[in-house]
Amino acid sequence: MIKYSLKCKKCSIEFESWFGSSKEFDRLKKLKLLKCQNCNSLKIEKSLMSPNLANTKKKSNYQNVKKYELVKKKLKKYQKFIKQNFDYVGDNFTYEARSIHYNQKKSKKGIYGKASIEEVKELKEEGIETEMIPWIEEKEN
Fold first, then answer.
1. pLDDT averaged over every residue in the chain
2. Where are the alpha helices (DSSP H) in the chain?
3. Closest CA to 137 of 67, 75, 87, 94
4. Domain ranges in the chain?
5. Is the model's pLDDT at 107 over the cut of 80?
6. For residue range 34-85, what is the model confidence (pLDDT) as tens digits?
7. What's the burial of 93, exposed, middle or buried (CB within 10 Å: 0-12/13-18/19+)?
8. Mean of pLDDT values over 90-112
9. Cα 38 to Cα 15: distance, rounded to the nearest angstrom
10. Which residues pair with residue 127 across a beta bridge?
11. What is the CATH number of domain 2-47?
């Protein structure tokens, strides 16, 4: 199998397609079976395409690991800030959020805790501002 980057000479759109071999592309073109997916023109040409090198995958994996570590570091920083500046209410988050919102309870600080996605949706529908962030448990550090 070979993947070609193709270009329509009529409308200049570029797209990719797979072929069994380079000869297969030539055969389909000769039989006028290659058409532009945009304008149906038969004036399709191969354009240059960079090869997919094995080295690229290693570099990509390294970059992904670096990005993951950077995101993890930022999340830990946010968590530290939250722990220092907000009150932890655990599984009672939705109850506490409603109590504060409907003025049944006064809070000098914001709160954080656990809530399901459905519970967060319900809070937002009631006009209660909430945000979710991924939480990295201490054992994952």
1. 85
2. 22-30, 54-85, 93-101, 117-125
3. 75
4. 2-47, 58-140
5. no
6. 888 889 899 999 876 656 555 555 667 778 888 888 988 999 999 999 999 9
7. buried
8. 88
9. 10
10. none
11. 2.20.28
